[in-house]
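FYI - complex with NAP, inputs then prediction.
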Amino acid sequence: MTQPTVGYIGLGIMGRGMAHNLLKAGYTLNVWNRTASRMDELASAGATPRTSPADVAAHSDIIIICVSDTPDVVAVIAGVDGVLQGLRAGALVIDMSTISPQTTVELASQVRAKGASMLDAPVSGGSEGAAKGTLSIMVGGDEADFNRALPVFQAMGKNIVLVGAQGAGQTVKLVNQILVVGNALAMSEALLFAQAGGVDVTKALAAVSGGAAGSWMLSNRGPQILNRDWRPGFTIDLQQKDLRLVLAAADDVGVPLPGTALIFQLYRTLQQAGLGHEGNHALVKALEQLARLEINA
Ligand code: NAP
């Protein structure tokens, strides 16, 4: 069977790595990014830069989107020169951004009206997972569309699960984010306590990482905290965007999430301090301010 031509829209921290992996898997790739210079690297690697999301859609069987927030996905799909303007009947749109489950369902119906179909397929695994092709992918949509997209997903990820109908992928991604920030808070409190308790924080981290307290967050972001390396795999601004989505969705279904709401407020203090561009592990700085103590490896 011939491979579909794939389009990729949004070459940020995540999209860049995923697009490279699609090229490595042999796909013919069209790309578009709002800041055009970000397409140069992909063009050098063999992708074809396009002039707009509509232009990508006009030349692609499968169109993947990975941009920041709900209004951005709406703009890229339904805006001026958006995907809907170029979409071919029978094409498949896959949104891999993390956005509102409700808006996802509305966009899917606009895509359907053009004779095409849509999957929501948000990811977890950070910039490392995007670069290595080891992302977890949570997919919402029809099974036939999922099966059609599976080889493309396999070029970008490892744990790929169809979790339900359109919008369900986004809901499960929000489940994922509740777990991520809970882990980030536990890591921050634990490392700060180790520092205050007068132990060597590097040894403390090594001692607990492999046991029942271990986590992806601790193994990947713990060392960054000890090195006071705040470069983002995932920015505080995007983390806060996801928590806003979590709290709105929880409000819709009437479930209290007191822990997540507290972490939302801690991240807000960091945004107010001008740190929104730093990595989400900089959550520890909010606790350091409360404790008037800095972790010092
Ligand atoms: P990023 O590095 O900030 O990149 C954002 C991308 O979206 C850029 O290509 C940006 O274009 C584009 N964009 C934003 N608004 C746009 C608009 N209105 N129109 C067109 N393009 C627009 O973000 P990222 O970390 O790659 O995250 C992308 C998505 O993946 C987000 O939904 C995020 O929540 C999700 N995600 C991220 C991670 C992670 O660890 N980073 C993990 C899982 C999921 P410009 O280059 O022009 O700014």
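The first helix runs from residue 13 to 24. The pocket of NAP is lined by residues 10-15, 33-35, 38, 66-68, 72, 75-76, 97-98, 123-124, 126-127, 233-234, 238, 242 (CB under 6 Å).
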